[in-house]
## 1
Amino acid sequence: MSAPPVRPPILLLGVGLLLVAFNLRPALTTVGPLLTEIRAETGLGAAGAAILTTLPVLFLGLGSGVGPAISRRLGPDRGVLLAIAVVALGLGLRALGGLVPLFLGACVSAAGIGLAGGLLPGLVKRDFPGHVGLVTGLYTMTLCLGAAAGAGLTVPLLDALPGGWAAALAAWSVPAAVASLAWAPLALARPHFPAAPGVGSGIAGIGRHRLAWQVTGFMGLQSSLAYITFAWLPSVLRSRGLDAVDAGFIASLMSLGQAPSALLVPTLAARARDQRAHAVGLVALTVIAFLGLLFAPLGVVAPLAVGLGFGLGGMFGLGLTMIVLRARDSISAAALSALAQGVGYSIAALGPLGFGLAHEAGGWNWSALLFCTFALGAALCGLRAGRDRTISASA
């Protein structure tokens, strides 16, 4: 009888998970600060810019949706390895320059991000069952730091690297490749066994529960608010008179503001009886801060950006935490994650596209109204998804 495979140490698993998490947002936050330069060089119109900010969110949903199939075939650990390698590939494609590699790279890297994001909650439930809130907070905080790095460092990279915006965007493939190399030995050390009966129908099983769709609604609508901000905040600030460096700095501040709430909110929410107050409070903070960035004096944009980031980071961490808390076991967590992120990101894709089209039709006032509408929907879904209940993919 052969000895069972050695389980990687928990500390190494945690470090590997954080390295992966760091690379799950730069692909999404690096285009916004350079959108003016990209449009000037390529002739990309307003509708094309809106599509550029929308397609990656759709591919996030597609990546999340195939998570269960990838997990059954490769195992969740190797599925994450595949995902982060795809992210690195998509980011690297941008080095070719031009609109086709830009759009293709955005879609490929987003699919990898969606796949990883769909698999990670199940890994947390499996490997850290006694520390779900803390570990979810840590990897969400690290993800937000990656978003901040992408937003704040891409314009300096544009100035420092030959090759213009294509090289500045492609440079983010390097940390993704490093994460792939770090995660590979951890993933390959884990055995993969055939899926248990019923796993293949996990999404269908979890989808029978109304609560699953309420979690999905919250996840999708809060993501829509985040992707509107990632895609359009630099343009909003530049239209108000900031230059590219200052607008990128403020966007980076916003992303940095996500880090503390991404750590604190999951930890506190996991200890609470339910999460309804967390959801409503964070949505309200997000709306107030975003409207301030649109209309308040420029002298207060820095603290407003931090407040916006705190709200967005907290909502994202809360969404991931509710996925884990509402699921009865790791299989159910993986199924709920695939549903909430797969369908949720399809909902989220409407945000950046609608925001851009609303601006073209009626300026920032119409865009602000759309933002508030999505926020109201997120609050209503959060009131239902935050209740203290659990569901199973098999019952």
## 2
Amino acid sequence: MDDIVKQALAKWPNVPHCTGWLLLDRRGNWRMRDEAAQAAGAPGEPIRHTALLGFINRNYEADDAGQWFFQNGPQRVYVELGYTPFVVRLAANDPSGQLTLTDQADAAFEPSAVYLDDEGGILFTNRSTPARVAVLHDHDLDLFSEHADLASDGRGGEFRWRDGAVLKLEPVRKSEVEKRFAFVASPAAYAATNPDNASR
């Protein structure tokens, strides 16, 4: 967390939180959602400002309930998630061809497990504590398939990561991902149904 954010929190500790205004979409884009976008259930406009994107990524964290938020100075801006709290890109670096995963903040993501959901999405968890879950950007599914062997029933298999490491490709239902990996996809909906735990 940026020092300027820590200072703002110390100076104004009771600023009300907000929900619904910021979205991380399925492709790792941060989107600003004004009142019209929220009312229409639209994803909102992509944020393009490089410095703002860096500020969001550096101050992106989760609370004890599994709600992800951007700490904007003294205000906690809860994030609506298009799927998972992180979106990763898979690349084969030249000239070695060694695979790499990076998240939406361009940080390295070291996978510890890989999952195939029932809609064809690929999910990774990493080695952090607690583990973070990320969905693979759909543009990278072809590269993933070059390094994966699916089981005959299409519900599992193996992923050849690198340095000889092979990760078991485990099946998971998309509808169960949020609960299984302990995050809240919609803090706005969570606040509406959990008034005692709603953001202040």
